[in-house]
Specification:
Elements: E1 6-10, H1 16-24, E2 29-34, H2 37-47, E3 54-58, E4 71-77, H3 88-98, E5 99-110, H4 118-127, H5 141-147, E6 150-159, E7 162-170
Parallel strand pairs: 1-2, 1-4, 2-3, 4-5
Antiparallel strand pairs: 5-7, 6-7
Length: 171
């Protein structure tokens, strides 16, 4: 990612990914936005004593509270797979708006997975969605491309059998 840049984490949650962002962007500006005030409170408490430039704020992916072309890097981890598919274009257009020209984004979502045991998560999402807070496997590449992003890299990973896809893209 680099240092001394402007980074946005959409759906910062309790700050797990944001912690890594702060450790790599010590001299830059890091922003996190979340729809849950409870999650934001946990994240704010976690980073209260750090001596880095960051701002955590309430907001949502449908109307990010930032100027156009604001960020060098954008992250969103396990957000889109919680939302209805008909909202993907609106959210990705917001990502496009706030990301600088030649800016980079990384989106992590639940995926179908490549192994037989990954299918157990698909079945849980299909038949018991509340167990996964309504998270389900999605295919995001076509939406990213139709928004105007160029996909640089895709990777499927399995974390304790939970299947995820990581997509890195450029504006």
């Amino acid at each position: 990612m680099g240092d001394n840049i402007k980074v946005l984490d959409v759906g910062v949650g309790t700050g797990q990914l944001f912690k890594r962002i702060l450790s790599e962007n010590k001299h830059g500006l890091s922003f996190g936005v979340d729809l849950s005030s409870g999650m934001l409170a946990k994240a704010k408490n976690k980073f209260r004593s750090l001596k880095v430039n960051y701002l955590l704020s309430f907001g949502n992916a449908f109307g990010l509270p930032y100027k156009s072309e604001s960020f060098d890097y954008l992250f969103s981890s396990y957000v889109l797979d919680l939302l209805p598919e008909e909202n993907f274009n609106k959210i990705l257009n917001e990502f496009y708006r706030v990301l600088k020209t030649n800016g980079t984004g990384i989106v992590i979502t639940m995926a179908m997975g490549n192994y037989w045991y990954n299918k157990l998560w698909y079945l849980a999402a299909k038949y018991f969605p509340s167990l996964l807070t309504n998270c389900r496997p999605i295919e995001l590449s076509a939406y990213l491309a139709s928004t105007g992003f160029n996909i640089i890299e895709k990777a499927n990973i399995s974390q304790n059998s939970f299947p995820s896809e990581i997509i890195k893209f450029k504006k």
